[in-house]
TrEMBL record:
Catalytic activity entry: 2,5-diamino-6-hydroxy-4-(5-phosphoribosylamino)-pyrimidine + H2O + H(+) = 5-amino-6-(5-phospho-D-ribosylamino)uracil + NH4(+); 5-amino-6-(5-phospho-D-ribitylamino)uracil + NADP(+) = 5-amino-6-(5-phospho-D-ribosylamino)uracil + NADPH + H(+)
Family to which the UniProt record says this protein belongs: In the C-terminal section; belongs to the HTP reductase family. In the N-terminal section; belongs to the cytidine and deoxycytidylate deaminase family.
Domain CMP/dCMP-type deaminase: 11-136
Names of required cofactors: Zn(2+)
Gene source species: Rhodobium gokarnense
Pathways involved: Cofactor biosynthesis; riboflavin biosynthesis; 5-amino-6-(D-ribitylamino)uracil from GTP: step 3/4; Cofactor biosynthesis; riboflavin biosynthesis; 5-amino-6-(D-ribitylamino)uracil from GTP: step 2/4
Protein name: Riboflavin biosynthesis protein RibD
Pfam families membership: dCMP_cyt_deam_1, RibD_C
Role according to the record: Converts 2,5-diamino-6-(ribosylamino)-4(3h)-pyrimidinone 5'-phosphate into 5-amino-6-(ribosylamino)-2,4(1h,3h)-pyrimidinedione 5'-phosphate.
Cofactor note: Binds 1 zinc ion.
Single GO MF annotation: diaminohydroxyphosphoribosylaminopyrimidine deaminase activity
Gene3D superfamilies, alphabetized: Cytidine Deaminase, domain 2, Dihydrofolate Reductase, subunit A
NCBIfam families: eubact_ribD
Amino acid sequence: MPPAVTRPDAERDRRFMAAALGLARRGLGRTWPNPSVAAIIVAETEDGPVVVGRGVTAAGGRPHAEIVALAEAGTAARGATCYVTLEPCSHHGKSPPCSDALKAAGIARLVSAMEDPNPEVAGGGHRALEAAGVSVAVGIGGAEAREIVRGHILKVTEGRPLVTLKLAVSADGMIGRKGEGQVAITGPEARARVHLMRAEHDAIAVGIGTVLADDPELTCRLPGMADGSPVRIVFDTNARLPLGARMVEGIAAAPVWAIVGKAAPQERVRALQAAGVVVIAAPSAEDGRIDLRIALTLLAARGLTSVMVEGGADLASALLSAGLVDRAAIFSSPGEIGPGGIAAPDMVRAGLALSRFTETETRGFGPDLLRLFAREGD
Ligand code: AOF
Ligand code: ZN
């Protein structure tokens, strides 16, 4: 009988890495303060390669993906190949290093999509395994892996989370109707997509104007995904968030964080805290409003790697002009709002061009169109 094939096979590596990247994507929004990482362990048998363990970073960040996959593989990990979407950690953080666990389990080969930009790791995991005699290949699936952990990269390099701006614009260029609260601009297919996007982010943010006008719940209401609801954040300089707001009354569904100015009335701050709202005081910029860059830094310090901003127009404009938007999701509907509409500010349209965004994807959802933008070069 011929010996089992042990020679690295590029096509096979791409295939297993693609599976791992798919798994990692499914963990998005659930693993903060850690990035969503996946590991797949493949043993060589006489019948060819067999997956003996799979893991994604657990909800809340621990255990890490490799530990979950190794537990499933047991002794079958000895001599096997491990595919990881991010370099295994080598530091003693809140958990022991994954590089040690992989070594101890007898992994013979590591295929890793990318180096971990976390300065505590930064190549140390790959080096530790190589030094232990493990064959290490880095870079397969790197572009997609970087896209998945973009928020983690920004958090460790710039100290702020990834910001995705979501807007729905009617055919006549409106984002709502004055004094009417929430207006349905897009259809049910696009709305389902928005709920999925919510679940893929660590948090959703709106300005206080949107809360006062629309009273949104900001939860993920997809069947079977209710636990995917991210943290709800309100930019609220003067702590005006009403205790009777739906998101405060329904605080059990998902946490609510209010970012208030340092001069916000203390009795309002105390009332919000008593209702279970986490109040974060941020310094003001020159215009008296919250300094958005610093506010985002405070969110990253609390562990968030990604935030989806859902409105309103003022917050969207302010983030765009501060250069703090990394991705944008613009839904356009064929329907018109007509008289009394609130126009999407020119800043939003111009901002996407000014900050040099490129359109990465265009997709139809029922009658609506979704256009995705990313910062050029991202
Ligand atoms: C991995 N596998 O699944 C993830 C990793 O505080 P700790 O010990 O949980 O370490 C957190 C850091 O580990 C995090 O900032 C990131 O650099 C890395 N994430 N590493 O080996 C994983 N999620
Ligand atoms: Zn680890």
